[in-house]
Amino acid sequence: MRKLDRDEARARIAALSAEIQRHNDLYFQQDAPEIEDAEYDRLLRELQALEAEHPDLVLPDSPTQVVGATPATGFATAPHRSTRSGCSASSACSSRSRRSYSASSISGASCWK
């Protein structure tokens, strides 16, 4: 693919962002995806590459800058019943802690022993 000039990059970034956001809405809100994950990933990689080439064109609401999506409606709420507060893979620093965390995740026991 040829390198785009600034105006072409701006237009392509806008088009990719809109298309990816549309697919996010179809997937997360409507539970009606229209494209395969591989195609979605291709679109996202293209956007990431263009934004890397033109960092001044990255917008705060770009799909590359937003984490998650608005929760879909229609689900019943349920209480969180975890007794393992503060226990996460990112806080298990040593390999021993990670093994303990992994084992406790499977068994449901506390990882902080």
Summarize the structure.
With 113 residues, the chain is mainly α.
Secondary structural class: mainly alpha
Amino- and carboxy-terminal Cα gap: 54 Å
Low-pLDDT sequence parts: none
* Relevant CATH superfamily of the largest domain: Helix hairpin bin
Query: Total number of β-strand segments?
Result: 0
> What's the helix-strand series?
HHH
The domain tally reads 2
Summarize the amount of helix as a percent range.
40-55%
Share of β-strand residues = under 5%
The biggest sheet, with number of strands, parallel, antiparallel or mixed sense and barrel status, is: none
What key phrases describe this protein's structure?
2 domains, about 0% strand, about 110 residues, mainly alpha, extended, about 50% helix, Helix Hairpins
Write structural notes for this entry.
Helix content is 48%, strand content 0%. It has helices spanning 6-29, 37-53, 95-107. It has two domains: 6-57, Helix Hairpins (Orthogonal Bundle), CATH 1.10.287; 85-113, no CATH class. The protein has three helices and no strands. Helix 1 (6-29) runs antiparallel to helix 2 (37-53). It has 113 residues and is mostly helical.
Topology:
Blueprint: H1 6-29, H2 37-53, H3 95-107
Helix pairs in contact: 1-2
